[in-house]
Amino acid sequence: MVDRPKLKLDKSLAMFEEAKALSPGGLMGIRRPYNFVPGEYPIFIEKGYEGHIIDVDGNDYIDMLCAYGPIILGYEEPEINAAVVEQMKSGFCFSLVQPVQNELQKRLTGLIPCAEMAILVKTGSDATGVAVRIARGHTDKSKILRCGYHGWHDWCVENHGGVPKEITDLTMEFPYGDLDALEKALAENKGEVAAIIVTPVGHPLNAPVMAPPPGYLQGVRALADAHKAVLIFDEIRSGFRVAMGGAQERYGVVPDLATFGKALANGYAIGACVGKAEIMKAAEKKVFISSTFFPNSLEMVAAMKCLDILERENVVANIWERGAKFLDRLTTIVAASGVPATVSGIPPMPFLTFDKVDDHYGERRTLFYTETIRRNLFIQPFHHWYIAYRHSDADLAHALNAIGEALEITKKRYPRK
Ligand SMILES: Cc1ncc(COP(=O)(O)O)c(C=O)c1O
Fold first, then answer.
1. pLDDT band at 207 (very low <50, low <70, confident <90, very high)
2. CB proximity list for 21: less than 8 A, separation 6 or greater
3. Ligand 1 pocket, residue 125 CB under 6 Å
4. pLDDT(277) > 90
5. What superfamily would CATH give domain 10-76+314-413?
6. Strand partners of residue 172
7. Is it true that domain 78-312 has CATH number 3.40.50.300?
8. Residue of 10, 266, 272, 409 with fewest CB within 10 Å of its CB?
């Protein structure tokens, strides 16, 4: 096995230099090169098709990051785009709302077990922000126990500049899968916890992705009830992937509120906070929720069409079946390679993390992701991957082949001592 030469990325790198003078850091947050392998990954994308992206230098990749989650079908879905263009002809931004808002809310309440009412927003952070505000309004309590990534707003980003300590002191993080830790946090904040918000499928940063351990979600539900805290499932990654009704449908535990975004409209910007009417009604008079763009209908039309396609093509079953085969093959390849690494995840969300067995684990990870991007597989070292409906069997076979070769090179360069 020979190392592949570096891809030609001249235009991407030049555009990034230009971007640095235009925007702080060139790009915001997770898209900055240090979150990939600097100098090896493209930075600017020209276009996408099916399960692929093409960068500004003309390199074509199989994309298993899927825009960090929204792409559940594929890039440039003609049916969705046609529906959006049709809506454009009537207009989509008004002082009032359009009928599609009712239609989409009806659709969500029909699909998602906890959803008796819905509030449509534009991003995942909007949705979790709405859920937390409603929970605080409903309970008249302030503290939040959280587990997972819930967005960039003040209430859920500790240890960052620009966020007052007085605000983050009200939010406490608990580890996924550990009921004792949650119970302890509730006991330490007795009578003060407005909500427990948890990603039902665990995906801590740069760590294995976990299906809920048996009884875990049931245990979280029971603790929330015992402490009269609102239980929120953050289904922004799991929504429409784990099941059409989210992880709550597949794993059979119904929260009080739930948040959705990402895959809801295959890339169009929309989010939703849904939940039990009794709690959602806090948003009728008690709490304030409003934005100029929340009622814009293009994203709602896109969501309706996306849901049509997901149902018509039985997409969830398809990506679970092919994802399960992918996870199986990945496990075999990783085991055969002898590289100290762990396969994790659930079929629609596979991941590979490198084990901290010696001082080389970081270098192994960097080399692995260098060799996979050089083989035109776009995956991320610190974020799990996704299976999309338009990833063809040939795409997935190519991905596994690239992973096998990259592991072989990694093993040769950094043998386990
Ligand atoms: C579980 C979860 N919640 C909330 C968010 C925030 O969503 P957004 O980035 O659309 O604001 C994300 C985004 O990655 C997420 O994965």
1. confident
2. none
3. yes
4. yes
5. Aspartate Aminotransferase, domain 1 (3.90.1150.10)
6. 145
7. no
8. 10
Q: Where in the chain is the domain with CATH 3.90.1150.10?
A: 10-76+314-413
Q: Work out the angle at residue 232's Cα, subtended by the Cα atoms of residues 226 and 236, and round it to the nearest 5 degrees.
A: 155
Q: What pLDDT sits at residue 1?
A: 63
pLDDT tens digits, residue range 66-100?
999 999 999 999 999 999 999 999 999 999 999 99
Number of the ligand 1 atom closest to the C-alpha atom of 123: 10
pLDDT score of 2: 63
| Separation between Cα atoms, residue 334 and residue 346, nearest integer Å | 16
| Closest ligand 1 atom to 68 CA | 14
Q: Is the CB of 350 under 6 A from ligand 1?
A: no
Alpha carbon 270 to chain centroid, angstroms: 13
**Could you tell which of 150, 201, 299 is best to mutate to test the pocket of ligand 1, judged by most ligand atoms within 8 Å of the CB?**
150
- Asked if residue 54 lies in contact with residue 48, where contact means CB atoms within 8 angstroms, the answer is yes
Would you state the pLDDT for residue 270?
Answer: 98
Rounded Cα gap, residues 195 and 203, in angstroms: 20
Residue ranges, comma separated, of all CATH 3.40.640.10 domains in the chain are 78-312
Specify the pLDDT at position 159.
Answer: 85
Residue 144 is encoded by which pair of tokens? 């939040």
**N residues, the chain:** 417
CA distance 351 to 327: 9
